[in-house]
Design a protein that fits this description.
By secondary structure, the chain is of the alpha+beta class. Helix content is 33%, strand content 18%. The longest helix has 21 residues. The N and C termini lie far apart (65 Å).
Length: 378
């Protein structure tokens, strides 16, 4: 039976297959299975002469026996969680402080849109003032042109056949294009609205981001717009690929946080009442809209900090083939509530079974004009 296993089609065989054969055949089968094992297949020999074959050993459990996507914050001691929370929050404050001049420049630029009516007292009380709408006009024209090019009526996805074109490849490319456009335009209702908002925001700030990931709560892929002021990186960062840490700031209602806790996505920790932590950029943007948030405990949202970073986490260290710790940091996603300084989740940020442990990149960076550093020019 072992000689009949097709290595190219592992999905046709169950993840655990018992192989029983005579002794002479079993030797040949083990030799063949050892060859398969070099490709990452786990083989366990049983006392009765059979063997269990697991084609995806890392997809179910990780090194410590827990699920690969388990919330590690529930498995670590409180003192380890406390030290990690303090370190990460201080890093967040340092990263944010390093770009304070960028934030001030952006806030000053918002006033040039001319969307806010101001009572003037100079050169005399009641003097009329005007702001030329050239900036607002330029932003609107870019948004309209970019929307038409990047999000046409039949969908944004286009396909290209690599190599020699055949009728089968052409039919396949049409099916792929139609299916992906259907997913984006019908199964992801937030895609078009948030893409439109991003195109207006992009020329103002110079940088905008999309976060593409699978949402466990919704049970589907999502693509959400992330403003540049809500994505913080270290001073030394030049791109999303080479930076060690990316921090996304998310404002979540008390009900949404509780839903995530009940679903098991966040640790069930008492966070207390959310603190009012309105950012000055968000406050300026709301002023342009003519709205103001009142300080009310019932209306305040939690400030969630999502750290996409690499850690040498105590108890889950990287080890070599001999079981010795390497000291190499591993990609994780750590979620923290900023007001209470409580860590809600720690999850591995690499694919199960990946020997290189490459980080999964959720963010896409859009630049209006390439800048001298991480952010683009607006």
């Amino acid at each position: 039976m072992a000689n009949n296993i097709d290595k190219s089609l592992p999905n046709q065989v169950t993840n655990s297959v018992a192989v029983e054969s005579p002794e002479e055949t079993f030797v040949d089968g083990i030799e063949q299975m050892e060859e398969v094992n070099s490709e990452g297949v786990e083989i366990v020999k049983n006392e009765d002469g059979s063997a269990d074959i697991n084609f995806e050993p890392g997809a179910v459990a990780a090194e410590g026996g827990e699920q690969h996507d388990a919330n590690l914050s529930e498995l670590l001691p409180e003192e380890v969680i406390g030290r990690l929370a303090s370190e990460l929050y201080q890093n967040y404050l340092d990263y944010k402080s390093s770009r304070s001049e960028w934030e001030e420049s952006y806030v000053m630029g918002l006033d040039l849109l001319g969307f806010k009516y101001q009572q003037r007292s100079e050169p005399f009380q009641g003097a009329s003032g005007a702001t030329h709408p050239v900036l607002a006009e330029a932003v609107t024209q870019f948004q309209a042109q970019a929307y038409k090019e990047l999000l046409p009526a039949d969908g944004p996805v286009r396909t290209q056949i690599m190599g020699m074109s055949t009728r089968e490849k052409e039919d396949q490319s049409v099916r792929v294009k139609d299916y992906m456009n259907y997913q984006i335009m019908n199964e992801m209702p937030e895609y078009e609205a948030e893409f439109d908002s991003m195109l207006f925001y992009l020329p103002l700030s110079g940088s905008a981001f999309k976060k593409v990931y699978y949402d466990e709560m919704l049970g589907r892929a999502v693509s959400k717009f992330v403003q540049a002021d809500d994505l913080i990186v270290p001073y030394s960062a030049t791109s999303l690929e080479d930076t060690e840490t990316v921090v996304q700031r998310i404002y979540m209602s008390q009900n949404d946080v509780r839903k995530a806790q009940v679903a098991g996505f966040y640790a069930d920790i008492d966070l207390g009442s959310p603190a009012y932590t309105q950012d000055k950029i968000h406050e300026e943007e709301r002023k342009l809209e003519g709205v103001k948030k009142t300080v009310s405990q019932d209306q305040s949202d939690y400030t969630i900090l999502e750290f996409h970073t690499s850690l040498d986490l105590e108890g889950f260290e990287d080890v070599d083939e001999e079981g010795n710790q390497t000291g190499i940091k591993i990609p994780y996603v750590v979620t923290m509530e900023a007001g209470a300084r409580e860590i809600l989740s720690i999850r591995r940020n690499y694919s199960a079974g990946d020997p290189e442990k490459k980080k999964t990149q959720y963010f896409v960076h859009f630049k209006f004009l390439p800048g001298l550093g991480f952010y683009g020019f607006g």
